[in-house]
UniProtKB/TrEMBL annotation:
Its cofactor is pyridoxal 5'-phosphate. It holds the Pfam family SHMT. It is an enzyme of class 2 (transferase). One of its GO terms (cellular component) is cytosol. This is Serine hydroxymethyltransferase.
Amino acid sequence: NSSIAEVDPEIAAVLENELGRQRDTLEMIASENFVPRAVLEAQGSVLTNKYAEGYPGRRYYGGCEHVDVAENLAIERAKAVFGCEYVNVQPHSGAQANAAIYHALVTPGDTVMGLELSHGGHLTHGMKINFSGKNYRIVSYGVQKETGLIDMEEVEEIARREQPKLIVAGWSAYPRHLDFARFREIADAVGAYLWVDMAHFAGLVAAGLHPNPIPHADVVTTTIHKTIGGPRSGMILAQTTELEKKLNSAVFPGQQGGPLMHVIAAKAVAMKVAQSPEFKERQQNTLDGARILAERLLQQDVADAGIALVSGGTDVHLVLVDLRDCALDGQQAEDLLHEVGITVNRNSVPFDPRPPRVTSGLRIGTPALATRGFGKAEFEEVADIIAETLIAGKAADVAALSARVKALTDAFPLYPGL
Ligand code: PLP
């Protein structure tokens, strides 16, 4: 019954230091968020002790009567949030949810079509050394050089030529909406399954602030920890129960053993929170924040420093900064913002001349700051700090910029009392 500080002071220090880092910096990694304390409590609970292979009411272990309640609540709430009849809440992560889709719908060697990694796709959409790229014949679509937008004519042309069995629409770094209806038409034209990976924008969908892919797709996957702001994990959804058997058996026993019941309980909490007015307000602030950031980064002083935005703006929770004509590369820009107290990640931009370890881009997202309570005024200040830092480059007045960051973090305490 000893505390972590007594049992393992080194790890206790990591927890404390990380809490301090989260409190004292501006978190703008587009895939991150701050979970509510209720989610932390569920995830750090005795449910971690429980084995529950199988599905509610059909387990391979005794003593599942309480965890069954948690899993059923997570499923029913997710159905209500996204408007669908099928949900599987067992995937341990987004990548595992995606692995289950391949397992259920295609066989190794089949052709799968997804967005090119360097144009904003995810590793599991066909990267060469990912399981997806190793086991399937991957054909990729990309964005247009001039607009930074996915060209649906090109998607159709590639699909007709390559005849994929599965088409994935979804992204890790693309600042615009996808045309789900058009993807559906193309999938139908070539007899492919349409899978939407909404990992990034699911919170916006849940709030009704982004088109919902569910009515268009055969199957949808998501993470719960990005815009949604729930526990680190994944989920599979579908409009109907048509593929239920295939999908459920692909997750268990196809991909996983025992589900993480503490995480599933935390997913249930996240799906309850997602039905609240505060959640919708937070998603609106997330979108407003990204738009404010985009507007600032499109101003002339920023353009004069050789900085642009991929696609010229944003419809979602992130912007993709294009540094191809800037004195800073992606790595330098990430490091400089880190010095000022703003955490972002460098990211390849389409047609990036630099290698993936360096890149010529930044991906900057607003979900975590919206959760922290930031509204328009704070996002304007953040946008200004970022613009001034990137324009000044190596000559940036780090002390003065850090002081402005500190004023913001002090005004919005994170996890008070934790
Ligand atoms: N799908 C997309 C589009 C993502 O952006 C990510 C995460 O970055 C994933 C799947 C994978 O999620 P996880 O990191 O939980 O495996």
